Amino acid sequence: MEASEVMEAPECPVCLQSFDGESTVPRVLACGHTACEECLTNLPKKFPDTIRCPACTVLVKFPPQGPSALPKNIDLLRLFPSISQIKLEPGRNCKKAVEFVTRSWSDDFYATWKDRILVHDAVSVEIRESESSDFASASLLCGSLRDDLKVSLLRVASFEHDDCDSVLKYSYVQRMMSCLWGMREEERDELDAIISVKQRGVSKVFGLWGDLKNGVLYLVGEKLTGFLLEEFDSLTEDDTSRLAIIGMQICEALLNLHKEGLIIGCLSVSCVKFDEFENAYVDLIELIETGRNVYQIIVEETRSLRKPVGASEMGLILVGLQRKGILMSSEVLFELLKERNMLIKNASSKSLVSYNSDVWPVCFLVLKLCLGERFTEELIESVNCVDAKGCEEGIEDLLVLYAGITEKLSLESELQGKFKSMVEILRQCCCLDPQARPVLTDLWKCIRELVMKPRFNSMSGLHKTISGKRKEFCLARSELCRLVEVDSKELDEELPGMKTGNEEEEGKVDIDFAGRLSEGKVKYKDMRGHQDSVTGLAVGGGFLFSSSYDRTILIWSLKDFSHVHTFKGHQDKVMALMHIEGTEPVCVSGDGGGGIFVWSTTFPLKEQPLRKWYEPKDWRYTGIHALAYSEYGHVYTGSGDNTIKAWSLQDGSLVCTMSGHKSVVSTLVVVNGVLYSGSWDGTVRLWSLSDHSLLTVLGEETPGIVRSILSLAADDQTLVAAYQNGDIQIWRDDTLMKSMQIQSGAILTIAVNGKWLFTGGWDKTINVQELSGDEISVDCNHVGSIPGSSVITSLLYWEGKLFAGFADKTIKVYYCGH
């Protein structure tokens, strides 16, 4: 043998040390796998006298005296290459699962946004009678959150009012996720930045809320008291301190926003609010609404223009802004017009918008508060007085127009007394060059001097360089401000992202969430044939098998769901059903009289069973309630006499009886070499398939509380138990990870496939949950529900299709159709 063909010595799967028979002694576990003696000693043991195999993760018996009582793997030491044939390879030959519900977004996306979506009943909307007819199109509404806390609601997106023709009715959170996923990444980034702001002097943003009735997604923010402008119409020197404090607090709020990478770009009186202590706050919701008003004015004033704007058009826009009380820096306005290609061709491609852009609107707001309505009147008069003739050919002429407005403001004549010290810095703040303006900290210090003369001028904290982790963006130019309501279909092309009245246009804000959440629509087909309640479902050999109280088993084609054959012979209601693949594929059924029937599923199908046998009865006996099968050739029955019996599939002989449950054994599952049994006594017992010994008991942590287990489902390392009170419990590696109520009545049946969990029962609804998490925690998120016409008695998931049996004799198959 060549050296390249020599295999390495076998290693312990835990410590990866080579077995040598001395320091690393190989010990064989009951499952057949081997680990070294030292590692077996140190492995955690959750339950007495059991251990989880480090190779296949199956729970196996472990001797009380330790691993030295286990046999040595002598053959392994002699013929070590054969170990490679014993090791379990997870995922090998696994068939790729077919999703019943697929989604576009990732787990990280869901984790980021799920906590930012408010519960659907958290917000109540206040509608005035005059607004009721136009509720759905309103951009900014008022509402209440929790204990009558007043909030502002800003419309940010739309979604479908209902689930169209999809049978699966998606949950509120899923619909909001789909709506968010349908937004552009830039819009979501801005929402993320706004919701994340937790700075002093800035109103709170609680999150996102969806109005299911009208199909609107809102941004929910704190609603505070606004300005009463008439209070500032007749300011005296005695009011200087009050005005100065307001100005300082506005500067501080904007400086805090700068730390988050947010530039406001424009400001209005409505953006400044007060709390109960009359502290001034900047309202983020109002800032976005102000930005939308800017877009509205630009759209209205340039609607009919097919050429770049000149000085006269710019003057109209400025007048419109002033009448709305909007104060905007010149460079931000120029950028907005440039984005719409409304400026002349020699406009610079370089953006001048920076943090200094916020000095301008703050300066003008202070002037507005000092001068009252006279300030607005004077600004409008300044625009009208500037001669726009001859100012049509260059960007410089537009700047001249803007400069003329600021120069005509009579600051000296109006700001007398204590306000006089502010004149020079306010004039500098009006400079057209952003880099030549004072920074906000300079304006803050100047305003502070109206209140007090500081003893120390070392304000090192205010001079720190702004370097946030988030990307910077200007609210006045944000994508969220573009989402305004307009009537013109043409404007949708001019303003990308703007929502128009035509919902069929490509690029609309409204999204088909059902189409994004699943591939096509969830459809269904009825399968009728039983004469009584359906009790069980199984798939195998290209057929669907269904059992019923009518004592029959119907066989259905999986291609067209047509009825193919009927198994008859039971003298009592059929309670449980399963299909076993093998050299001789068979269907096994159990009835309420203790009968166990084995049917051949090889085509052509026969009317008589291959063999049958009966359980012994006593006065406590109530029939067979559950069936399971192991690779050892044993059929397991869960019975009304509180026991589990193992039978030989070949001849029906009784192998053993497993006792321990205190009530009816209602459900059985075999997975990873362990038999799980659920009972009306509220416990789950784990049994070894090799010797049928009890491994451990789950569900005894809450003595005195008995919740009957009606169904179990397992997939890989996850076990889910369903209870008669609508609860479920989720175990991973036999550790309880989650306990929660998901239905209002008893859960009669449950199915698990990967991350998808399906439950059904007395409330006549199939609930779809999504499982996520890791070894530390598990989340169970409600995806949607499928309303039914009757009690759901059985569920089966198979290759992207969900089969459901009902108490009204019907079977429905749900699938993704188009």
Automatic annotation (TrEMBL):
Keyword field: Metal-binding, Repeat, WD repeat, Zinc, Zinc-finger
The keyword Mitochondrion belongs to this UniProt entry's keyword annotation: no
GO MF entries: zinc ion binding
SUPFAM superfamilies tied to this protein: Protein kinase-like (PK-like) (SSF56112), RING/U-box (SSF57850), WD40 repeat-like (SSF50978)
WD repeats: 527-566, 658-697
Domain (RING-type): residue spans on this chain: 12-57
Recorded superkingdom: Eukaryota
Protein name: RING-type domain-containing protein
